[in-house]
Amino acid sequence: MIVVDNLSKIYNEVVAVEEVSFTVKEGQNLVLLGTSGCGKTTTLRMINRLVEPSAGQIYINGKSILNQPAEILRRSMGYVLQNNGLFPHYTVAENIGIVPQLLGWDKKRIKTRTIELLDKLQLDAGKYLHSYPHELSGGQQQRVGLARALAADPPILLMDEPFGALDPITRLNIRQEFLYLNELKRKTIILVTHDVEEAFALGDKICLMDKGQIVQNGTPAELLFHPAQEFVRNFLHPQALLLKMKAIKFKDIWNKLDDFTDLPAANYPVIKTEQSLWDAIELLQQKKADKIVVTPETGNQKKIISSASILQALSPEN
Amino acid sequence: MNQQQNFWEFVVLQSDKLISQTLTHIGLTFASLLLAILVGVPLGILIANKKKMAGTVLGMAGILQTIPSVALLGFMIPVFGIGTVPAVAVLFLYALLPIIRNTYTGITGVNEAVRDAARGMGMTPKQILFQVEIPLALPVMLAGIRTATVINVGVATLAAYIAGGGLGEFIFGGIALNNTNMILAGAIPAALLAILLDFLLGKVQHIIPARIKSVSLLLSVVLLLSTLFYFKPVGERKLLAGFEPEFMGRTDGYLGLKSEYKLNIPSVVISDAVMYEAAYEKKLDVIGGYSTDGRLKAYNLKVLQDDKVIFPPYHAAPLVRQEVLVKHPELQNALNLLAGVIDDSTMTELNYQADYLKQTPEQVAKNFLQSKKLWREPQIGTGPTIRIGCKIFGEQYILTEMYRMLIQGHTQLKVETKTGLGGTKICFDALTNNQIDLYPEYTGTGLLVILQPAQPDIDAIMASSDKVFSYVQNQFEKKYKLTWLKPIGFNNTYALMMRREQAKALQISSISDLKNYLEKE
Asked: Burial level of B385, CB count in 10 A (0-12/13-18/19+)?
């Protein structure tokens, strides 16, 4: 568990980060969201002490990180940068092996781990192990960057705009892989982004920052449906509809759905209650249907909803 | 001098010397380069981390670079004396700037994201320096080393001025002797060396990052080994001689010492400018200088008698256009007032006053003429103007001043002096082209530089000053319609010289004595 307590950073009397506090539970993903200059990257860099805090404390599992040597601390955290920061004079294998080597792993163990990671990240080890970064595509480089951060299996992962330098399609693909990567399920992750959709897709919790302060810290749904300030509403507004459709699951509106009585003639697409309204709309489009059947978590009572009702469900009173 | 030597013949003939000079040259270049890397690279790294110091350090290295190399050599002599050490020191200073600057540029040019990643992964500053910054800066650093190498191969030729050796010995010897083959024998290997090293370092620079570690290692080994060339052990020696490049290549110089006297003395090549002082400071024991040089007196040196007469006589006398003498007979009388008046030691004394005590030539000339009661208040000239030329060194200035005063004091003629006409060739051409009317010339120069008779003719007259004078006088009348008036008296010839007290202690007063001393066990 990471506890950030009243953390501030002041550069020459300019306040970059002001009394920021939040907690990230083990295995949770926290996203620091905001525009450039809002202090999100500075906050992240204080956690691995690339930036020394001016005031405040950071605890990991109850111990202050400011009391241990910065290098030792950093070796226990994976760090992924926007421009991947791969060493251009190191091969893929050497890049991935950096932290394990610093930790004194033997060569065989490093090699086994490297190949394992490349497999998991869907990079052909036989092909790329001895390639140099400039021989890889942007997406491949970013995968290697992620592999390097994961190499020593650190419990914590810090990611600074990890997908920011990629084109939209590659970004989406890598993000999908990221979501389903087993390696990451157990990790406590703090991720910095300015991309609202990315924040909602990846974050268990989102910390929206502005001018060095936290504006709201909560689950994606809390930010969407209970914005703490006008700023939050405005910040999310351009993508609000999409985000809501993704945020609202059928179990949330279960009671408002009509009961479905089996009509043998009808051949409606079927969806589960933990799926979102967005999933339903995508399915309806795909099947060219106008109604969808929702199967319950427990019990036998199925429900049905039309595409028109789905849009109604997003009206303000919901 | 007449026989034109083929370049290849020269190279083959002098191959021993050529090889040793080339090795010395490489040694000089690499020794200084190694030092410059050892100092420059850490300094460059330091200022890359402490940017506040960068301006000062780069500025200072830049200023060093702007000091003319010959001047820098001059500054080094009081500190390091002559020979290897000051030469390496100067080359070291020249190599410093490109190495510091490129190290600085290379390190500061490392991608910030890479440095950030290195820190973020928990590398220590030392690990970042050696595993990230230096390997990534290496191509730029190597470019700096490459520049420094090429600069040093060029500047290393100047080491020959201060007994540092190298290909400069041939180059400057060749320039002094007007021997193109000799110049080329020095210049071509120097140029090839520069091109070769530039090419090799260029290859190294573009090597892929993975091999950079092994290549750097190889480079440092090569550098160290080649430095060793330079520090070859020096055998024990009784006396060390220093000769200027011209002396080394002349038959009436070093070659004559070897063939006529069978003199075998370990010697270094050194510039005339520092040779006398080096002898005084006991860096050298025997030097080949000029017998009337003021520094003989300043540094208390003794001229060794040339008992086998290998140095031709160089008696100074006015060389005048015949036409002028016929038109103005009074001119000859005025000029002859100086005939036989100044002997060797007197001329040395006068040169000492001008060169060492820094009196003006005019002052020296006037004081001397007054002491000989030859000086008269200049008359208001009503006659035509006599133009006097002179070569560009102190003795000639003094003589020209004396002639000016004598003509102005003893005749109605007006005088114009055209001083500083470079060397013999320029003065002589000015005279034959009616640009000047007279200048002081030396018999030996007239014989060997201007007339250049066949060797048997030279051999027949060389031993006698009188024979040389009358030969030159006759030939000049016939060929150029120029008249040699009576000699002034002194003989400004080449001479071997030693510190007076050492010569006395070793009982050496002639070159044969020196040879016998050297052969004695």
From this structure: exposed
Whose CA is closest to B167, among B178, B177, B159?
B159
Tell if the CB–CB gap between B116 and A85 is shorter than 8 Å.
Answer: yes
Q: Over the stretch B410-464, which tens digit does the pLDDT of each residue have?
A: 999 999 999 877 778 888 999 999 999 999 999 998 998 888 888 888 888 888 8
Residue B406 has pLDDT above 60, yes or no: yes
B121 neighbourhood in chain A, CB within 8 Å: 74-75, 79, 98-99, 102, 148
Q: What mean pLDDT do residues B252-272 have? A: 84
* Cα angle, residue B79 at apex, residues B75 and B80 outer, rounded to 5°: 105
- Edge-first strand listing for the sheet containing A77-80: A77-80, A156-160, A188-193, A29-33, A205-210, A213-218
Tell me phi and psi for residue B317, to 5 degrees: -155, 155
The 10s digit of each residue's pLDDT in A94-127 is: 999 999 999 999 999 999 999 999 998 888 888 9
β-sheet bridge partners, residue A20: A7
Q: How confident is the model at residue A317 (pLDDT cuts 50, 70, 90)?
A: very low
Does residue A148 sit at the B interface (CB-CB below 8 Å)? yes
User: Measured in whole angstroms, how far is the alpha carbon of residue B204 from the centre of its chain?
Assistant: 36
Q: Pull the structure tokens for residue B484.
A: 């040699």
Contact (CB, 8 A) for B437 and B483? no
Residues B204, B215 contacting (CB under 8 angstroms) = yes
Whether A98 and chain B come into contact, CB under 8 Å, resolves to: yes
- Are A84 and B135 a contacting pair at CB < 8 A? no
SS3 content of chain A, % helix, strand, coil (to 5): 40, 25, 35
Q: Which tens digits make up the pLDDT trace of A13-58?
A: 899 999 999 999 999 999 999 988 899 999 999 999 999 999 999 9
User: Is-contact A76 A188, C-beta < 8 A?
Assistant: no
What secondary structure does DSSP assign to B164-181, as a single string?
--STHHHHHHHHHHT-HH
Residues B192, B195, B200, B203, CA torsion sign? negative
Of A73, A81, A148, the CB nearest to B113: A81
Is B195's Cβ below 8 Å from some Cβ in A?
Answer: no
Residue B258 tokens read as: 């070897």
The set of residues, in sequence order, having a beta carbon less than 8 Å from that of B31 and lying 6+ positions away, is B88, B91, B227, B230, B231
